[in-house]
Input
Amino acid sequence: MDIDDERIRDAVNHTEILRPPKQSLSTFGTTNIYYYLVTKPAYAELVKDITETVVREGRVVAERPRIVTPYYLSRLEGFSLEAKRYFDMLTRTHGSNAPGLLYSYRNEPKELTIVSDDLLSVVNKLNAEIDKRADPLTSIIKGEDELWDVSLLKFIYEMTKSSLRDNLLQLGARGLLDTDASGIPVDARVRIDELFRKVSKGEVEPRELKDELDRWGLFEEYEDRFFTIFKKGR
Output
């Protein structure tokens, strides 16, 4: 095993979600989760009898989960050749139109503070502050200082896993997991209609809509409607 792989595995194994959010990820909207990621400082092993704790604050923004298919994933940019081969394997195993959920996240780091107190005491104070605010979407994560972002990714993974069942049930209850005769999920059609509205209002760039249509292989179907937007703008 590569030494970097070992460090990552150790960081994951030593990550603890001390206070998980009290709500799942929203099925039909954006979820904002505030986090405190507490670690012992990386230099703690070099300095004797140190009682300091590093506190990183930030926000993880989880976009509305989207229903996608292996075919759609294979057309996304930014993936390696190995990932593309994995998508091809999914297509062969489940079919090109098997629906699944794609979660998108954005990390917004805020502050980094070094507190002159031990980690347990810091956590207790943070818990008291959060209880006072009665905030259901604030979390405390204990991680590794040098690989704190790996600890954050583990937290995101755990949040996704715990929310998946409820998200699927709610989407299924609205029929959004169903696919049409072309193999396109109902939810994808809903998103495309939403993008058309936003482009018409100038809220998103036409390129975003064009890219979404291309990923589904639907540009020809929507081509007239797409160019009508520009005719209205004249």
The first strand starts at residue 16 and ends at 19. The mean pLDDT is 90. Residues 148-173 form the longest helix (26 residues).
